[in-house]
């Protein structure tokens, strides 16, 4: 192949390269941002109302943090972590969830000296190498709330209330709250024994995954969705029937608090959650049309041993996290709107190089005064600019042509009344404000 021919092939190959987001990851485009914005605003407001302080944790943590907390034998740690070795040979992972990092931060920064409970919330991306499908992504966003340092079940009720308040604020009301208690280190070992012996006798009827779980994590068999397993699980002993007096009291009080708050719930004896650190209360929030909870909108529970496990002193805690991608999907399915984006009221049109340059400071002056302005600086053609202004439905168009730029003036055209006026550059912000106020008043009177 000759050199020119080779160059041609290289160039055409270069042209063909088209990058795309990697599987399970996606862009969230401006058109979708109002939904996300509505969720973030609701989270910020409710966090403030319930006294939670924001924490931002790193997206990368040591692999061992998740092995020790989320659990070595959980699907998340065993199959779904984005693990890699750094140049310094550290074994790290993109975070699959936020709770371990929050607890690490609590211990690392000595937050035990702060008044209890320490209430923290976070918003950010999480990473799980799961099989992508609708509502299941490899990079997804969670907001999470953690209350550390209080064992009273009233906190469990309040954390559920917080989650539901956020869902309500977004406009998502039809929610199924599923609750269960999986006991503590006192009562769970006995229950585990009972469960394992029941399941071992029916091992042949379990799926291969559950036969393995029987050895590593028998509780997880209870939330298997395989048809053959669900038949076995239906008759299995239930943790709520084998709680120690303390766990029983805790669970009963939680249910009484929920009744008091008029929060409707279902006690789900098969709800165990896929993470190792839970004790006592576990709960999930399902969309009412997701009968089996295959795409839970949120979930959480108590984790009274986790702080100790990460080197802190014995400290009870409770929390939850919700999946923002799934909430956005529910909003769309239910026709719930995102935040309203205020439309610009003014369009700034210019003609000629000097006018274009001067328009930059007019724009800044208006923006500083809190007036949103649309423009089309890249376009020189006045007709095209006015067409755009018309499409945007603005109230006023400011025109600076060649003559105005030399005279240091601007034409203000009222798009509703049709009249126009020439004002000196220094007065443009004041005049625009006056005219917008007048238009507002006229609209109100009508
Ligand atoms: P989780 O149940 O693993 O709990 O996740 C919480 C929520 O994140 C789920 O209910 C779901 O809405 C969303 N989610 C999980 N995986 C995906 C995915 N692949 N794609 C889209 N959304 C997803 C936790 O993460 C715990 N840290 C919650 C917690 C906080 N417990 C106590 N404190």
Keywords:
binds histidyl-adenosine monophosphate, five-stranded mixed β-sheet, alpha+beta, eight-stranded mixed β-sheet, 446 residues, 2 domains, Rossmann fold, BirA Bifunctional Protein, domain 2
What does this molecule look like?
With 446 residues, the protein is α+β, with helices and mostly antiparallel strands. It has 2 domains: 30-187 and 243-333, Bira Bifunctional Protein, Domain 2 (BirA Bifunctional Protein, domain 2, 2-Layer Sandwich), CATH 3.30.930.10; 346-445, Rossmann fold (3-Layer(aba) Sandwich). It has 16 helices and 16 strands. It has helices spanning 3-16, 33-49, 63-71, 75-79, 99-108, 153-170, 188-200, 208-216, 227-234, 245-260, 306-309, 324-333, 353-368, 382-392, 402-407, 428-445; strands spanning 53-54, 60-62, 82-85, 91-94, 118-127, 139-148, 175-181, 266-267, 279-287, 298-302, 317-323, 346-350, 373-375, 396-400, 409-414, 420-424. The chain has an 8-stranded mixed β-sheet with strand order 1-5-6-11-10-9-7-8, with helices on both faces. Helix 2 packs antiparallel against helix 6 (153-170). The mean pLDDT is 94. Residues 97-99, 128, 130, 135-137, 140, 142, 144, 146, 296-301, 319-323, 325-326 line the site of histidyl-adenosine monophosphate.
